[in-house]
Amino acid sequence: MPDQPQVLKAGSRPPWVGLAAAVWVQISAGNGYNFPLYSSAIKSVLGFTQQQITILGVANDFGESVGILPGIACNKFPIWSVLLVGVVACFLGYGVLWLAITETVQGLPYWVLWIALVIATNSNAWFGTAVLVTNMRNFPFSRGTVSGILKGYVGLAAAVYTVVYNMVLKDSASKLMLFLAIGIPILCLALMYFIRPCTPASGETDSSEDVHFVFTQIASVILGIYLVIVTITSDLVSLSDVVSYLLVAIMVILLLSPLGIPIKMTLFPANTKKKQSSRVDSSDQLADQDGNSTQYEPLLAPSSSETHLGSFNDSDDASDMETLLAVGEGAVVKKKRRPRRGEDFKFREAFIKADFWLLWIVYFLGVGSGVTVLNNLGQIGIAFGVDDTTILLCIFSFCNFAGRLGAGVVSEHFVRSKTLPRTFWMTCTLILMVITFVLYALALNGTLYISTALLGVCYGVQYSIMVPTVSELFGLKHFGVIYNFMLLGNPIGALLFSGILAGYVYDAEAAVQGSSICLGPNCFRLTFLVLAGICGLGTILSIILTVRIRPVYQMLYAGGSFRLPQTSGH
């Protein structure tokens, strides 16, 4: 089936309206973080063992991270249809779980619940891929910033749902399931119209764009701090219904704050005619729907980056000759060449590249280690003697958000000013993760919360850095597919490091103690030491990757701003 041509929404406001709507869809795409809130209810109501709950946790991670189909669909179908699939998956998956947890339907087999949870959390892949692909194409000059903002709001989703669960749903797992099955689909249906391809934002030609991004980032930071304060306050103090609903209303207002940008642009319009004339006519020039021999026009006027581009291309694939002599009277036939890093790759072309697998392995080792702690955070807290693990989850959630948002801002600054590859920050966080896991293993007094905060930041950075790195190395045209393949590192890491390693070590120590609940630092010490070694390996591979792709960033960001390479047909 040929790629679906998409109608672009013209004007300067639609990309920002789409970004504001994407914030809410990204919160919806974080529904997988709710598993710790209802897993205990499933265990008690349905009589499951801890091992069965752990396997359901793997289903939770597997569903939200398998997004190959959404990635393909983003190039084949309109974005609203991609969102619609997510709506249906969310309704069906959580609907079945609601029927089970309320015992409306009794005797559902375990495998049915496992598949239902995979379908439910797979809605995250459809929601997240739709908004991420659309906004990366709508803001092609600010990929790191946009990625940080959108991934940051996903990181805040856990805290948002916790506030709703505690203050509105009154800690009712059945009400939470009903909210996920009906509330989220209704919300995404209402926002479906606004998530659409637009004429790309003007980027560096419009200095106000930086101000708009800063406003959005500040608003998200304020929201994150507010959620931490509200979560801790509600845990320590009994709040009346009126106060609870008021606090939730303030949270909703903060979530609506990015909408202030298009409102401001409407009330105080700028003279953009001159700027718009220099824009590209279509975001599909960045992700062209025709995969044959289209020659892209440069987005910006030629600059000194052409010198870098020429030398880069000459040295990148010198043996790949563009021409061969035809049989006949001196005719020359031009043959297709493979894309070079920084250009648009098809999935099968990226799949055979060393940089593709280096990035995947580094991401797998970093995120796989982080998700192991996240999935077992409740048990880790209990093993370390923490009575209420809600604060631990809240700390991890906020620091995860801070890492995602901060990685976008910091990497964008240094990639423009120093042409420093974004993967440099993956290297830094992997080193920090080695130290963090050693702190966990030592189990020193007062280090649990510090270790959890550090790991939350590192976990968020890994997510946020991977997204723009994929788009810069392999282009935007097939970004959705390649990005979602990278995400497979999450469930595979959860299965190997959490489901097998951590589960085995925990059960073995619990058996030694003669109880089903393990207490003490030995419950996870071996796991933490192994994870420290895994992150050490990731550090070495990340350094190799960073050195390999440095010339790509020197080409893409020569002159201090993003330059789209002129691609040839392939």
TrEMBL record:
The keyword Transmembrane helix applies. InterPro entries: MFS_trans_sf, NFD4_C, Nodulin-like. Residues 353-553 form the NFD4 C-terminal domain. The keyword Transmembrane applies. Pfam families: NFD4_C (PF23262), Nodulin-like (PF06813). Keywords: Membrane, Transmembrane, Transmembrane helix. One of its GO terms (cellular component) is membrane. It is a multi-pass membrane protein. It is found in: Membrane. The chain crosses the membrane at residues 77-99, 111-133, 145-164, 176-195, 211-233, 245-267, 356-374, 380-402, 423-442, 448-470, 482-506, 526-547. It comes from the Eukaryota. Residues 15-263 form the Nodulin-like domain. PANTHER family: MAJOR FACILITATOR SUPERFAMILY PROTEIN (PTHR21576:SF97), UNCHARACTERIZED NODULIN-LIKE PROTEIN (PTHR21576). This is Protein NUCLEAR FUSION DEFECTIVE 4.
